[in-house]
Amino acid sequence: MKSVKHLLDTKQVIIISVPENISVLDALKVMTEKNISAVLVMENEQLRGIFTERDYARKIILQGKSSKDTLIKEAMTANPITIKFSDSIDHCMELMTDKHIRHLPVVESGEVKGMVSIGDVVKFIIADQKQTISQLESYISG
Fold first, then answer.
1. CA separation (Å) from 49 to 52, 85, 125, 134?
2. Which of 22, 46, 67, 141 has the lowest CB atom count within 10 Å?
3. Does the keyword Cell membrane feature in the UniProt annotation (predicted)?
4. Phi-psi category of 101—alpha, beta or left, where left has phi over 0 and alpha has psi -120 to 50?
């Protein structure tokens, strides 16, 4: 069974976060600069929430709020669903599908170790399936 640890071993892990007291506009600037659609909200190395493009659309734009005047802690999703290294890739897919989310912070012993996106999961599954097919082809023709 492939785990979150296996997936993280295949990608460069960079934790991008913003503090709770930053404005939504400044968080969006970070997201744009890093070309990401979600950012972790952390205070003193502790995960407080996650802010996504969906949060922006639903909690700022559709509510008529100002990105410049609203703090990220007012728009973030607090206490986000998290995963551990030992969780299976199938479990991640189930969580993302059932909860309609696209990002899962990886937390081990209270410490953020990375983030897994739906794109990461799909790419990992495709690569794993290609490897399995290649092994089966070698076995059949061998």
1. 10, 19, 27, 41
2. 141
3. no
4. beta
Dihedral sign for Cα atoms in the order 87, 92, 98, 104? positive
Is this model's pTM higher than 0.85 or not? yes
Q: What is the Cα–Cα distance from 99 to 96, expressed in whole angstroms? A: 5
What φ, ψ does residue 21 adopt, rounded to 5°? -95, 10
Q: How many residues does the chain have?
A: 142
Which of 59, 63, 113, 125 lies closest to 88, judged by CA? 125
> Nearest to residue 93, comparing CAs of 79, 85, 83, 78?
83
Q: Which two tokens stand for residue 8?
A: 């993280």
pLDDT digits (tens, 9 = 90+) for 16-65: 999 999 999 999 999 999 999 999 999 999 999 999 999 999 999 999 99
Rounded Cα–Cα distance for residues 76 and 15 (Å): 17
**Phi, then psi, of 18 in degrees rounded to 5:** -130, 155
Round to whole Å and give the CA distance between 102 and 123.
14
Q: List, as one string, the DSSP characters of 77-122.
A: EES---B-TTSBHHHHHHHHHHHT-SEEEEEETTEEEEEEEHHHHH
